[in-house]
Design brief:
Largest sheet: 5 strands, mixed
Shape: globular
CATH superfamily: Gcn5-related N-acetyltransferase (GNAT)
Distance between the termini: 42 Å
Number of helices: 4
Radius of gyration: 15 Å
Number of domains: 1
CATH architecture: 3-Layer(aba) Sandwich
Number of strands: 5
Order of helices and strands: EHHEEEHEH
Length: about 150
């Protein structure tokens, strides 16, 4: 398979098949992810500041990957945050993550953001991809408060 068999689409319409596909994708990320409901996925699609893109394998119509980018303004800058870039294991190493990231960055440019952020585990193989695409590693600490 080459990347010409993959199309990147912005998701604007809901289907329960989409919920199932996203569930399969996020399960690859580990046990700490909560199950999504149809309402959760509808909320992501309807979010005026969020953009969900999927990579679809044309011959099978299977969702091969996804990325979510949030675009928002804070007092001093407009920025984008990329979250949940995931590619189905059997479709990895074929340029799909690169295409998803490029589409997310282009969406951010359309909205005239100052910069795009993402976080990644230090053990992620994809860190080299992020740097290859121009992302710069920051010296910072990431914190999370579970509610």
């Amino acid at each position: 398979m080459d990347t010409s068999e993959i199309v990147i689409e912005r998701v604007t319409e809901f289907s329960s098949k989409l919920t199932d596909a996203i569930q399969r994708l996020i399960k690859q990320e580990g046990d700490h992810y909560q199950s999504l409901t149809d309402n959760d996925v509808q909320e992501m699609i309807q979010n005026p500041h969020g953009y969900l893109f999927v990579a679809r394998h044309i011959p099978t119509q299977e969702i091969a990957g996804m990325i979510f980018v949030a675009i928002y303004r804070i007092p001093y800058v407009k920025k984008a945050y990329i979250d949940d870039i995931v590619v189905v294991e059997k479709f990895r190493k074929r340029g799909i993550a690169t295409k998803l990231l490029q589409v997310a960055v282009e969406e951010a440019k359309k909205h005239k953001v100052s910069y795009v952020m993402l976080t990644a585990k230090t053990t992620r193989v994809a860190n080299s991809l992020y740097e290859k695409l121009g992302f710069q590693r920051r010296e910072s600490h990431a914190y999370r408060l579970y509610l």
